[in-house]
User: What shape does this take?
Amino acid sequence: MRQFQKTSLPFYFYLGGVFVAFYVLSITWVAPRFGVGNAVAFVLLGQLISMAAIDQFGLLGAPTHTITLQRCIGLILMSVGVFLAVRRA
Assistant: This one.
């Protein structure tokens, strides 16, 4: 019989499952009401904003990269792009 070694993981490793479950349930509820394209576009925008926050503060053990003017301009341009992509003309 094989015995497994018990390992210790930081608590935030387990949050991944919670976040995925929340994402699947929320996108399933939002997409039909908001539109699939809009839902995906705003998910991507949220990922960009959280990427900037994780890099700025070095969250979850990530190396820190300060938010420079160039990165701010890039985030603003991406936000404008999302707005233009989902806007109804």
Q: What stands out?
A: The chain is about 70% helix and 0% strand. Residues 11-34 form the longest helix (24 residues).
